[in-house]
Input
Amino acid sequence: MTLALTTIAPKSQGARDFLAKRRKQILIGGAWRNGASASWFETADPATGEILAELCEGTVADVDEAVASARTALSSTAWKGLTPSQRGKLLWKIAELIDTHADELAELETLDQGKSFRTSRFAEIPASAEQFRYFGGFCTKILGTTIPTSISYQPAGKQIFAYTTREPVGVVAAITPWNSPLLMAAMKLAPALAAGCTVVLKPAEETSLTALRLGELMLEAGLPDGVVNIVTGFGEVVGAALTAHPDVDKVAFTGSTEVGKMIVAAAAGNLKKLTLELGGKSPAIILPDADMTLAIDGVARGIFSNSGQVCVAASRVYAHRSVCDAVVDRLSKAASALRLGHGLDPATDLGPLVNRRQADRVAAYVAEGQAEGANIASGGTQSGECGTFYAPTVVTAVRSEMRLMREEIFGPVVAVTPFDDVEEALTYANDSPYGLAGSIWTKDLSCAHRLAAQVKAGTIWINCHSYFSPELPKGGHRQSGWGYENGALGLENYLETKTVCALI
Ligand code: ADP
Output
């Protein structure tokens, strides 16, 4: 497939104004400035290769300053002195500003990352606002407890009064990936700010634009100086410096399992608290009685949305043998019906992958699988002026030991495998180092709930896939991560408990 792509200019004045200033500075202590090295790197539209902006290449010195600024802000009157209600209102104000600027943020996200405008504008940008709204509500509900104790060795006539208080964990390093840039940043910033923490955010080097625009909006909302600092740059420099920094208390990371393991090692120096949302290879089990229309539509969305660059992507489908051929056929038709194009073209269903390297990586996985005996039922082609497009692809005859079945591809590629009974489906589903998510498709809800208990994963969907909301905890079992984002559990990651035990 050859795609003729021309540059599509954003419609919103906000996006145009933002892009008109080509060099994007970093945010430290409430001020935008150049980095210490005064080096810049380009960020491009993955569909056309057009350079969108130049980003500041952050250094260790920039990280030191950003962390120092976050540390100062942590105990500043301007931040610590806010009442919980004031903090909550500030988060809601940020949510409002994201909503007001949704067209502009969506256009910037699509230009920078590639995803369809529909996905940016109607899913991810509003979901980012909802993060601030949801966690803003917690600010006035962060409570300690009073604890009746059984201590019996106090002096005669004295009593024990014991209680807990909750405190912000401190300075947080938030490190985000390139698949859903603004949403991933919001999922860390919102609970961190609700808890009273301060943050140094390092967005992915491929997709930093919306994080930088959010930085401007947060200042406009009235966020005190230094509460959120943003340092762009490369993972091995800025990310590594943050994760090893002795004055960072916690790292909130979403990205690959490989980098997650590096962060665990780097964080050991001062035993930083960690939340890690890592890779996945999520199974979808389709039982013979499933509503096929629902299942095909849900699985197709589950694997092809955002061109498969989704940590919970339904990349392994296990279909009962009696329906497997139909599943392959219908998924292939669904794949072929998706229109590839520039994300800002309203007719586009799927945009490019984030860059050529990622598209080549996806193509290499499929080629290797083919060489090992896998069949391509549909797709399997790379295209576009920059080679960044990869057709939604359905593969069969993928054996469990192949890398195509074991590793996270992060592309629109699904392997469909038949099973004969539920036990076999479970064995297949659990045959993975990952445990992020999975879905079960059946009308037999008793069977679905029994299976849900046995699939090793942090989220199980029944008759749906990739359903998210800020109130639903999201995290990985096995090598898919530590801790949970979203929900009350998501806030816990940013809080410490202090027990006060008094003799009175
Ligand atoms: P992906 O494969 O999805 O890009 P990565 O795990 O490579 O995921 O990257 C996710 C984030 O982690 C990015 O912001 C990247 O810059 C950052 N990163 C990469 N290497 C390191 C590292 N050694 N230490 C800390 N952060 C890193």
In short: The chain has a mean pLDDT of 97. The longest helix spans residues 117-136. The pocket of adenosine-5'-diphosphate is lined by residues 175-178, 202, 204-205, 235-236, 239-240, 243, 255-256, 259, 262-263 (CB under 6 Å). The chain has two domains: 13-278+482-500, 283-469.
